[in-house]
């Protein structure tokens, strides 16, 4: 049997294979943040397709951390009923689901967050939303840490199988970890140890609200790819070592930030036409220039985060490592696992196109995924469309 279809545990949770649907913002929640039937169907299909674990798109733990109009909320007890329907559907289909908890930090707008966006530091104006965030006070920090803990308690009440803390892609935890975003000189910044303190405190708050053996995962960047130095391999090696020592149940390694290095996160084609459709008429001239600069520079390299995994894995012992980033062929996936560079293969875009991908691979019906990395699925989000495979183009109208 292929190593892809051997079981492996994360904490108390035994997974039947090594194929994980990496967190992907779905744009499928109600404007209130509540779960919809469309969202449930997405994860139900993944479960029926024998995906070992599906990690949801980022759920906002506090209204100030909401970044998107149709983002799932886990910020209030009123969300539990809908979230319970989601987990029940996944479990009935034989699957397992982890809730990704997040605060969008500076990567939002006043309209979404209901206030001026917060960040570790007010450094710079956001290049996409043109927002200058305000520096978080000590009270802001403590309230946000508590919000992560309260959200974790709701995740357990809703029947989630695990939690993943979103510490990548330029969102709030990632911002605290990064010297590009975090230029504080108090106990929350100025050194790797201080920058790590926020994630450590969030982990402790979450740990205090869940059963003793409940799996807690974290997603981190191996590199931020920001204009000036942010999280790099040197710092992430230290962060992952500390996390393993604390008892984290799994680490997923990614790269890039949503607002500064979008195409580093999702290499392949630059969907210029589709991204241009999302811009207002007055944004188009600058938008075409900025998007055009990206074309031809981000060709897909299979396993483009593998170097980070190779550097991290020897430092974290038996702590499971999830590798995401352009995994496309069975042979490459098997090689990564057999050489013990990672313990799980995470994919996003391939599962958008083929929710039944895991079952197809298990049955030997294919050796490569169907996804061609056109990235139209992700360009759908700024166009107000749900995440779906749009390889043949967006629907008319």
Number of E-type strands: 13
Looking at the structure, the CATH topology is TIM Barrel
Tally of individual helices: 15
Content-based structural category: alpha/beta
Overview of this protein structure:
There is one protein chain. By secondary structure, this protein is of the alpha/beta class. It has a single domain (3-255, 302-366), classed as TIM Barrel (Alpha-Beta Barrel), CATH 3.20.20. Helix content is 34%, strand content 12%. It has 15 helices and 13 strands. The protein has helices at residues 37-48, 80-92, 110-113, 138-157, 172-177, 192-207, 233-246, 262-265, 272-277, 284-292, 306-312, 330-338, 349-353, 357-362, 376-379, and strands at residues 8-10, 13-15, 19-21, 53-55, 59-60, 97-102, 118-119, 134-135, 162-167, 216-221, 250-254, 321-324, 344-347. It has an eight-stranded parallel barrel, surrounded by seven helices. The longest helix has 20 residues, at 138-157. The radius of gyration is 19 Å and the shape is globular. The termini are far apart. The mean pLDDT is 96.
Topology, please?
Layout: E1 8-10, E2 13-15, E3 19-21, H1 37-48, E4 53-55, E5 59-60, H2 80-92, E6 97-102, H3 110-113, E7 118-119, E8 134-135, H4 138-157, E9 162-167, H5 172-177, H6 192-207, E10 216-221, H7 233-246, E11 250-254, H8 262-265, H9 272-277, H10 284-292, H11 306-312, E12 321-324, H12 330-338, E13 344-347, H13 349-353, H14 357-362, H15 376-379
Parallel strand pairs: 3-4, 3-13, 4-6, 5-6, 6-9, 7-8, 9-10, 10-11, 11-12, 12-13
Antiparallel strand pairs: 1-2
Helix pairs in contact: 1-2, 4-6
């Amino acid at each position: 049997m292929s190593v892809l279809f051997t079981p492996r545990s994360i904490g108390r949770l035994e997974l039947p294979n090594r194929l994980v649907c990496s967190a992907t913002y779905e744009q499928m929640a109600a404007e209130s943040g509540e779960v919809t039937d469309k969202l449930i169907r997405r994860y139900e299909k993944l479960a029926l397709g024998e995906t070992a674990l599906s990690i949801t798109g980022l759920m906002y733990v506090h209204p100030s951390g909401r970044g998107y109009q149709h983002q799932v909320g886990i910020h209030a007890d009123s969300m539990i009923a809908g979230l319970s329907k989601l987990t029940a559907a996944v479990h009935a289909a034989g699957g397992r689901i982890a809730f990704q908890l997040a605060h969008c930090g500076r990567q939002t707008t006043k309209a979404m967050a209901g206030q001026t966006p917060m960040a570790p530091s007010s450094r710079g104006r956001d290049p996409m939303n043109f927002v200058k965030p305000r520096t978080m006070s000590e009270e802001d920090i403590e309230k946000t840490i508590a919000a992560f803990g309260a959200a974790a308690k709701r995740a357990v009440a809703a029947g989630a199988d695990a939690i993943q803390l979103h510490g990548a892609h330029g969102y709030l935890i990632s911002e605290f970890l990064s010297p590009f975003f975090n230029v504080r000189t108090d106990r929350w910044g100025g050194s790797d140890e201080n920058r790590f303190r926020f994630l450590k405190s969030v982990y402790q708050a979450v740990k205090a609200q869940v059963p003793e053996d409940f799996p807690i995962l974290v997603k981190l960047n191996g590199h931020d790819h920001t204009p000036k130095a942010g999280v790099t391999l040197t710092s992430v090696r230290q962060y992952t070592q500390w996390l393993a020592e604390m008892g984290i149940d799994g680490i997923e390694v990614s790269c890039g930030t949503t607002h500064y290095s979008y195409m580093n996160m999702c290499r392949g084609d630059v969907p210029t036409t589709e991204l241009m459709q999302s811009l207002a008429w007055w944004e188009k001239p600058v938008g075409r220039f900025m998007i055009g600069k990206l074309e031809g520079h981000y060709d897909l390299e299979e396993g483009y985060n593998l170097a980070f995994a190779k550097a991290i894995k020897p430092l974290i012992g038996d702590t499971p490592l999830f590798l995401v980033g352009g995994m496309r062929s069975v042979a490459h996936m098997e090689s990564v696992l057999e050489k013990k560079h990672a313990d799980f293969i995470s994919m996003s875009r391939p599962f958008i196109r083929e929710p039944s991908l895991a079952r197809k691979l298990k049955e030997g019906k294919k050796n490569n995924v169907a996804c061609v990395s056109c990235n139209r699925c992700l360009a759908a989000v700024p166009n107000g469309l749900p995440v779906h495979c749009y390889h043949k183009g967006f629907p008319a109208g």
